[in-house]
Design brief:
Blueprint: H1 16-29, H2 31-37, H3 39-42, H4 44-51, H5 55-82, H6 85-109, H7 112-141, H8 146-175, H9 178-208, H10 224-228, H11 232-252, H12 255-267, H13 272-275, H14 280-300, H15 311-319, H16 322-342, H17 347-371, H18 378-406, H19 409-436, H20 446-452, H21 478-487
Helix pairs in contact: 1-7, 1-8, 1-9, 2-8, 2-9, 5-7, 5-18, 6-7, 6-9, 7-8, 7-18, 8-14, 8-15, 8-17, 11-17, 11-18, 11-19, 12-14, 14-17, 15-17, 16-17, 16-19, 18-19
């Protein structure tokens, strides 16, 4: 069989050193972007006071990011499938750096519309970086430790977010200028751009040695009818992604402000933590980071000295419990939102639980998405999923801003609880489809997944990318077709 058409195979084996070098550079692609993504959240009060804007106007900084993102990632997925991962990663990192620079200039001169424009450009880059990052991870790790590699990339991204929540409020106190803090964020996006340059040369040399192949070198051209043939379970996973991530990103956009105004005064009344002037906002940001810090620590801690020991991603992927994990993670968010909205309990334990739930979803959802589509459409599939995710997040940011202007945080948390309920219901539908159509493909052991994803014979231009699913097995019947052709 031709190795170039094999599913997940290469002409020459990839060494683990090369895999982890690419993984390290890939992790740094989104580090700077995620560090500055929630920079506005840590500086919400100074931004609103200095620029004289409302909660709804402030939410535009997240809305334009999400809506621009949902359009760009579609283009990014197709571009990746038709060109190379390395070139797209370089372009998207440059766009994100330019966008953050424009945002910083807007903050420097005090022009809010310019900040919105910069945030729009930034959104066109960061979300597309994630698509390229996911496709790169799948290219180098599809046949070994795929969930672990996804967990690693997400961990480093969230470390960037945690760094922002822990450090940015103190930088603002020290420097006394939101523009100075934004310039610091611009420097971090420049770091990601430098990583993209190094990754470009590493990936190019690897392809020249015949160890990988770019999407545009594959024998089968991508057509939109192939996208329309994506299985129903793919679209259900996209909806799970959108509803669940609304709870994370829409909440993180207002969480420091929520802690300052509602949670901390009720949970810790009269303490030095909340009464000492100038300490409340940094404290709220530090507590906000517990969501992302818990997610990062859960992926970093490992029982062995190998990266494959990242516990949850490795165990979930190998033991075959992807959909069950998504169901558990989704339903955990429902009492979390209700507790924050309707009680005065200390929020820290709930935020830690939220971070654990987030790590479970991040480690299983994206690898599951890669397993239900063909390699040739991997970039497009990731782009579509991210686009649907960002449509939900963008609309929710606007809804949360409007609820804040006209109601209280109780109504905000009730809305987020409804989204968590929808995510949980979608996982039930996903479980049903996986049982009926995929023969529990997402809930089987990793060895059985590798067998089902065995190399397929090269097809003609009329051969569909998504093979027919047999009535008995419900999984990819590429091996069966190969055996039939041999018998003939």
């Amino acid at each position: 069989m031709d190795n170039e058409t094999g599913r997940g195979l290469t002409a020459k084996p990839l060494t683990m050193a090369l895999r982890y070098l690419v993984l390290t550079l890939s992790c740094l692609l989104a580090f700077g972007g995620y560090l500055v993504f929630d920079l506005c959240a840590t500086l919400q009060d100074p931004i609103m006071e200095q620029l004289g804007i409302s909660n709804t106007q402030y939410s535009l900084l997240y809305v334009v990011y999400a809506w621009t993102n949902c359009l760009m990632v579609l283009f990014a997925g197709v571009l990746i499938d038709k060109t190379t991962n390395r070139m797209c990663a370089l372009i998207f990192c440059a766009i994100a750096c330019v966008g953050q620079t424009v945002l910083t200039i807007g903050a420097q001169v005090g022009v809010f519309p310019l900040m919105v424009i910069g945030r729009t450009i930034f959104g066109a880059g960061l979300g597309s970086i994630c698509v390229a990052q996911n496709t790169l991870t799948n290219t180098y790790f599809r046949d070994v430790n795929l969930a672990t590699a996804f967990a690693a990339t997400l961990t480093v991204s969230r470390v960037g977010s945690v760094t922002n929540f822990l450090l940015s409020p103190y930088l603002y106190q020290w420097w006394g200028s939101i523009a100075a803090v934004f310039w610091y964020g611009t420097g971090m996006t420049l770091l990601s751009l430098i990583s993209a340059v190094f990754l470009f040369f590493v990936d190019r040399d690897t392809e020249r040695k015949g160890k990988i192949q770019s999407a545009n070198r594959r024998s089968r051209q991508i057509k939109w009818r192939d996208v329309l043939q994506f299985p129903a379970i793919f679209w259900v996973i996209c909806l799970i992604c959108s509803f669940y991530y609304i709870n994370v990103f829409a909440m993180m956009a207002v969480l420091p402000d929520f802690l300052v105004r509602v949670a901390l005064p009720h949970a810790l009344p009269g303490t030095v933590l909340v009464s000492k002037k100038g300490m409340l906002q940094p404290t709220a940001s530090m507590i906000s980071s517990s969501v992302l810090l818990r997610h990062s620590l859960r992926s970093i801690l490992r029982p062995h000295h190998r990266l494959s020991g990242i516990p949850f991603a490795h165990t979930s992927h190998r033991c075959g419990s992807d959909v069950k994990t998504l169901f558990t993670s989704g339903k955990v968010m429902i009492p979390f939102d209700i507790a924050l909205g309707y009680t005065s309990w200390n929020p820290i334990p709930f935020l830690v639980i939220c971070g654990a739930s987030y790590s479970m979803v991040a480690s299983t959802l994206w690898p599951s998405l890669c397993l239900v589509v063909r390699d040739e459409t991997m970039g497009s599939a990731n782009g579509i999923a991210t686009s649907i995710q960002m449509i939900g997040i963008g609309c929710s940011n606007l809804i949360v801003g409007a609820l804040r202007d006209h109601f209280t945080y109780t109504q905000v948390m009730l809305y987020l609880a409804c989204c968590a309920t929808m995510a949980t219901l979608m996982t039930v539908v996903c479980q049903f489809l996986d049982y009926k159509q995929q023969n529990c493909f997402l809930n089987v052991y990793v060895a059985m997944k590798k067998k089902a994803a065995a190399p397929a014979p090269s097809g003609t231009e009329k051969t569909p990318l998504l093979p027919d699913q047999g009535p008995e097995t419900g999984v990819i019947n590429e091996n069966k077709e190969t055996e039939d052709s041999k018998q003939e």
